[in-house]
Amino acid sequence: MKSYTFETNLNAYLLKTNFIILLIFGGLIFGFSSCNSVKYVAENEFLLVKNKVVVNDKKNVSNEINDYIVQRPNTLVLGAAIPLHFYNLGNKNFEADFDQWKLDSPGWYNFTTGVFSEKQARGVRNFKYKMHQWILKNGEPPVILDSKKTTQTVKNLTQHYYNEGFFKVKVTSEENQLKNRKASVEYFVNTDRPYKLDSITTFIQSTVLDSIYEIHKEKSAIMEGDQFRLSSFVKEQNRLTNLFRNTGVFRFNKNAITFEADTSTTNYKSDVLLLIDGKIGDFPFIVQKIQKVNIYTDYSFTNNANNVIKDSLDYKGFKFYAQEKLKYNPKYLLNAIFIEPNDLYKDDTRELTRKNIRGLQNFRTVDIKYVELENEMLEASIYLSPLKKYSIGINTELTHSNIRQLGISGKLSFLDRNIFRGAELLKFSIQGSFLDSKDAAEKEKLLNAWEIGGDISLELPRFVFPVKFEKLIPKSMAPKTIFTLGTSLQKNIGLDKQKFTGIVDYTWESSKTKNHSFQLLNAQFIKNLNIDSYFNIYKSEFNAIQDIANTYFDQTLTPDNVIGFIDSNIDANFKQSNPEEFKIARNIRNRYNIITEDVLVPLMAYTFTYNNSENYKDTNFSFFRSRLAASGNLTTLLAQEKDANNTKTLFNIPIAQYVRVDLEYKKFWDFVGNNVLAFRSFLGVAVPYGNSSAIPFSRSYFIGGPNDLRAWKIYDLGPGSTKSGLEYNVGNLKFINSLEYRFNVINSINGALFIDAGNIWDISNNSISDSEAKFKGFNSIKDMAIGSGFGLRYDLSFILLRLDLGFKTYEPYLSKGDKWFKNYNIGHAVFNFGISYPF
Asked: Which of 154-168, 401-415, 442-456, 536-550 has the largest mean confidence?
């Protein structure tokens, strides 16, 4: 009865809490929506609240059309014009209103200046004034209906459909005055039928251009029967310009191309004539080759008087020049240069050369110029302005990850460019961090752990390997070899660790959107430094063993003698009488073995990345990454030593042997008003075999945290539908999906609504894992936890601060009737602080 009463009271409390949250949230929305939205709309003006475009008697649903509407209503956030209402909280006439208040209420003003000094009262007044100005600046002023802009929108829509081949389009508008000084505008579009391209003829005045055109005309962007579109003609103009300029026609430019289209017919067909001039001025278009290539390796763009050549070298037909002694080995510098003597002129090789030289990170400026010689061949000159050979950098930053909630780090770095005269980069750095870590023993303290480390790397702009790969991976793919050695010491993070890392990495770009990385070696040695502190850190396991010791053996344990207690008492006799307690104890013992073991991970990995993002501001792109890693295969074949568990070792350290596959896909859709819909899916599988029966703890999967399943804290969920109560839950299969809608609220403040679904499972044959933790095919999809929530993001341009609130929506470990929305309340919600977006 008591249990029933407690549960009833608890449910009532949670229901009340949810109701209060809903009431507050609804009150805020209602409060904003009920604000006087026409506060700053004059009596003879109207607030524009709606645009409607009707195309051929159907409401338009294309976002593209909105680009042609000059005047749009105020921005809506979750159905309410929050930026407008925020603006209306400000007082545009604060100074005049304050002066009038002084005249109307002299008693109150004198009382204020009597309690405070005149200077203090003036300070309060200035503070209020600045506050109102800040509100007005960050809010959104009302959009007042402007008939001139309505007329301009009609012209824009007409021109848009005209460019799409609807030459008989008719566009009209209607302004509707609504109640309370509000208005809407309707645009009516009657497109009629589109014109189609009929015959396409050419008049090319140059036989050189005509012969090139005929070879490639099947790739034309305009074909007979296609709908007439201006964009198709622009695309064809650009195609032909690129074609001619990449087949040796150095003098050609797009202004030599014109189109004539007859749109006066009544049969909705248009004849097109393509005209291409045969010369520019008095100079005919011809195919030109490159005769000379000059490379100035230390050119000064700021002081031409100093560009006195003192050293030069002729190498394979290329002329190298330097003001002092030539510092770059021509053999290696030519790996980034694609303009060669006796080749046809091509825009592509010019841009590829510029791109790859910049990628060397040795030069501040790259300029490429061409000069026509008397024999009508070309002389190419590449002017390079080098960066300083040595540079030292000191930087600090805030860091954030799922495990390390907050970090403050400092880094001292040293860079030596062109160390072996082949445009190499030698980097050396020392870094230290104070961290707020989930793994720390003293979790209640802020910045409860620290880390110090150093690394050295050598980056070479070519492959360094006994076998040559030029045919498979040519220099146009910007091949690089990176050697890295590093070490770090983590203090008060889990058991405290020391790590040594060695990496040999080969990278290349097969296209603008595709990158590859092959790590011939990614070896990591992990050594735990304070194993004796295990049960001080993993307190739930200590408490479980203590309960067994108290109940069945009447013993009080300390963290130092737990392992000895298990080894001495938890035996076959204890198993016969207490099978469940035996299982608990042996699980703890086995987990202790896994987590406290020192491990050597000699990894070989290949990573493929596809990213069609144009730049860092792009919000409409796709991303895919796959990584295949295998650890320990070669090392275990060579190793001869074994430990007491018959596990092969190297330097008395067990060799981890496993294979791991990670797949990640992200897609971003850009909507009207800078709103973005983002999707992320991740699938990872790690399988131990041969020399290992488990995945190293540091290479296992976990779930939860600010960048993951945000309704659960890191490590709190899984595996499967288990509810272990352990602080650290890991698995070797992970599947997670996230969908997030991002929108602007006010100025630099953005909001988000999100839903995450995922979990981890165990797919090994480990006997210590519960059945509920195992992955059992598609039937285990029901074990995916679901979290949903909302967040705020503050964009400082150089950094984005994020706060997300995640609610437990579906909990697979609860009983059948309680899985959905059982703990969907503020009491069980998780606050996630993050830096940058979660994905």
From this structure: 154-168
16 burial class (0-12, 13-18, 19+ CB within 10 angstroms)? exposed
Higher pLDDT, 410 or 63: 410
pLDDT digits (tens, 9 = 90+) for 747-804: 889 999 999 999 999 998 766 677 888 998 888 999 999 999 999 999 988 889 999 9
Closest CA to 148 of 70, 72, 233: 70
Q: What's the distance, CA 645 to chain centroid?
A: 44
Bridge-based pairing state of the strands 749-761 and 733-746? antiparallel
For the beta carbon of residue 241, count every other beta carbon within 10 angstroms.
18
CB-based contact 342:349 (threshold 8 Å): no
For the chain, the farthest-separated pair of C-alpha atoms sits apart, in whole angstroms, at 106
| Whole-model pTM over 0.70 | yes
Please give the structure tokens belonging to residue 221: 């962007």
Specify the pLDDT at position 11.
44
Burial (CB count within 10 angstroms: exposed 0-12, middle 13-18, buried 19+), residue 43: exposed
DSSP tag of 353 = H
Q: Taking each helix axis as running N to C, give the angle between helix 106-115 and helix 94-104, from 0 to 180 degrees, rounded to the nearest 10.
A: 100
Buried b (16+ CB within 10 A) or exposed e, 701-724: bbbbbbbbbbbbbbbbbbbbbbeb
Structure tokens that stand for 24 in this block: 């507050």
Helix (H, G, I), strand (E, B) or coil at 791: strand
Of 137, 249, 147, the C-alpha closest to 204 is 249
Write down how long the chain is: 839
| 268, HSE (Cβ side, Cα atoms, 13 Å) | 14
Give the contacts of 586 (CB within 8 A, at least 6 positions apart). 566, 570, 768
Band (pLDDT 50/70/90 cuts) for residue 494 is low
Helices first, then strands: H and E counts in the chain = 17, 32
Residue type, 560: D
Output the DSSP codes for 361-393: T-EEEEEEEEEE-TTS-EEEEEEEEEPPSEEEE
Q: Which neighbouring-strand residues pair with 631?
A: 603, 658
Return the structure tokens found at 137.
Answer: 């600046």
Are the CB atoms for 380 and 409 separated by under 8 Å? no
Could you tell me whether strands 47-55 and 182-190 are parallel, antiparallel, or unpaired per DSSP bridges? Answer: parallel
- Using alpha carbons, list the distances in angstroms from residue 182 to 43, 54, 85, 142: 11, 21, 15, 11
Tokens of 478: 């910007």
Q: Which residues contact 738 (CB under 8 A, 6 or more apart)?
A: 678, 679, 680, 681, 754, 755, 756, 757, 838, 839
User: Would the pLDDT of 10 be above 50?
Assistant: no
Q: Which residue has the tokens 């690129």?
A: 242
Judge contact between 164 and 171, C-beta under 8 A: no
805: CB partners within 8 A, 6+ apart: 789, 790, 791, 829, 830, 831, 832
Residues with Cβ within 8 Å of 634's Cβ and at least 6 positions away in sequence, in order, are: 602, 604
- Please give the DSSP secondary-structure letter assigned to residue 528: E
> Who contacts 120 (Cβ-Cβ below 8 Å, separation ≥6)?
none
Closest by alpha carbon to 766, among 650, 688, 665? 688
Amino acid symbol at 413: S
Q: What's the pLDDT tens digit per position in 81-129?
A: 999 999 999 998 888 888 887 788 887 777 777 777 778 878 888 898 9
Estimate to the nearest angstrom the gap between the alpha carbon of 749 and the chain centroid: 19
**SS3 (DSSP) at 633:** helix
Do 468 and 490 meet the contact criterion of CB atoms below 8 Å apart?
no
pLDDT recorded at residue 120: 80
| Residue 823 burial (10 A CB sphere; 0-12, 13-18, 19+) | middle
DSSP alpha helix (H) spans, 184-278 = 207-216, 230-245
350 pLDDT above the threshold of 90: yes
| Pairwise pLDDT comparison (254 vs 407), residue with the higher score | 254
